[in-house]
Specification:
By secondary structure, this protein is of the alpha+beta class. It has 10 helices and 16 strands. The protein has a 6-stranded antiparallel sheet. The protein is globular, with a radius of gyration of 22 Å.
Length: 387
């Protein structure tokens, strides 16, 4: 694939990507141009977002028939919708008449109706309304349904692929379930979805969520006290990285609101009932799974230096059923938003530095192993498309 980077030559980029090694203790970081170069964005979209499986989020974000979201992943606008049979479907958000975007935002619909010429599809993507087509010789509406993408569900997460013959999802995720099964994630419920734009590259947003290194500098008075030294990063075989760490209290509450802590999820025992597992499903979904709550972020590139963020907060079903759940959950949201508000200025400041043509590859500290694991995975995706 031909790309026209602005900050580096292709030969330099290949050399820099080759210096990103599987052992983060020996490796350089992702080349700064990959965070700032508009000319590399098309390569990244194809190499990272249009290959393999991409996590759409929690399946119960769309609980009822006709619940939908209009998303954009890898420069592909798409519709995620639950059909009448209760299945989650994913379609290209492009009308089969003249290509118009059909739906925007989130909502509920009984049918998928294009606002331009009113071509209308059912919730399985079949074309049902197509007025004034009597002059179109041999027109067969069965051949003009919405383009559908493979969509599979694992552990309460929905995954989509843009490939005609995607790899096995079980091979792609490999031992993901093994590390997360104590939480019985199929029973967890989404209680909040928040979306917003951030002035930084999508990768930097996910990276800061997966390293302990910045906690005493960025969060000295809010959440730093919660986190002792974490366990080593787990040696996984799937397209993800994960790391567990004990916490001093409920990880999703500030120190002065610990009295609002919800019970640990049913079935959790030992250390899993007193800590948090941080997981990054490549390329762009990450979540913190604590004993009583899960907060998740998805980052989608808008440009090299801007991204669209979806924040999702979930709790075990038995906690959601408690009579005082809403009041207690409010304190969880306040803590998560407080930490985010502290991160954002640093992410935007980091982007200013990354935008410089004089920015250079760095090294990984002891508390950044998950960031290093992703860096190697990412570099390999780009190198395959630059070969």
């Amino acid at each position: 694939m031909q790309v026209q980077p602005d900050l580096v030559s292709l030969d330099t980029l290949r050399q820099q990507l080759a210096a990103v090694l599987p052992d983060e203790n020996l490796s350089l970081g992702i080349p700064p141009a990959c965070y700032a170069d508009a000319g590399l964005l098309a390569l990244e979209q194809r190499a990272v977002f249009q290959q393999g499986w991409i996590a759409l989020g929690r399946v119960d974000r769309w609980p009822g028939e006709g619940d939908y979201s209009a998303l954009e992943i890898g420069r592909v606008p798409l519709i995620v919708v639950r059909n009448k049979s209760g299945e989650l479907k994913a379609f290209a958000n492009s009308c089969r008449h003249r290509g118009s975007q059909i739906l925007t935002g989130d909502g509920n619909c009984k049918k998928i109706k294009c606002p331009f010429h009113w071509w209308t599809y059912d919730l399985d993507g079949r074309l049902k309304v197509y007025s004034r087509m009597e002059n179109a010789i041999d027109f067969n509406p069965d051949e003009f349904g919405l383009v559908e993408f493979p969509l599979l569900v694992r552990d309460g997460f929905a995954f989509i692929s843009f490939e005609d013959e995607p790899p096995s999802i079980d091979a792609w995720l490999a031992d993901f379930t093994t590390y997360h099964e104590p939480w019985e994630l199929d029973r967890w419920k989404v209680t909040r979805v928040r979306e917003f734009e951030v002035q930084c590259n999508w990768k930097t947003f996910i990276e800061v969520f997966n390293e302990y290194y910045h906690l005493p500098m960025v969060h000295p008075d809010s959440i730093n006290w919660l986190y002792p030294e974490p366990d080593a990063v787990d040696a996984v075989s799937g397209q993800f990285t994960t790391q567990f760490g004990a916490t001093e209290g409920a990880a999703a509450l500030l120190e002065d609101t610990q009295q609002y802590a919800l019970p640990a999820a049913q079935g959790l025992q030992g250390r899993t009932a007193k800590g948090t597992r941080y997981t990054w499903i490549y390329p762009n979904l990450t979540f913190a799974l604590s004993q009583d709550s899960m907060w998740m972020y998805q980052a989608f590139p808008l440009s090299a230096d801007r991204c669209w963020i979806t924040q999702t907060i979930s709790f075990p079903a038995e906690s959601v059923a408690l009579g005082d759940f809403d009041e207690r959950a409010r304190h969880y949201c306040e803590r998560i938003d407080a930490a985010l508000a502290e991160d954002l200025p640093f992410l935007q400041q980091q982007q200013v530095g990354l935008n410089s043509k004089f920015a250079r590859q760095g090294r990984f500290a002891a508390l950044e192993p998950s960031v290093g694991k992703f860096a190697y995975w990412y570099a390999q995706q780009l190198l395959q498309h630059l070969a």
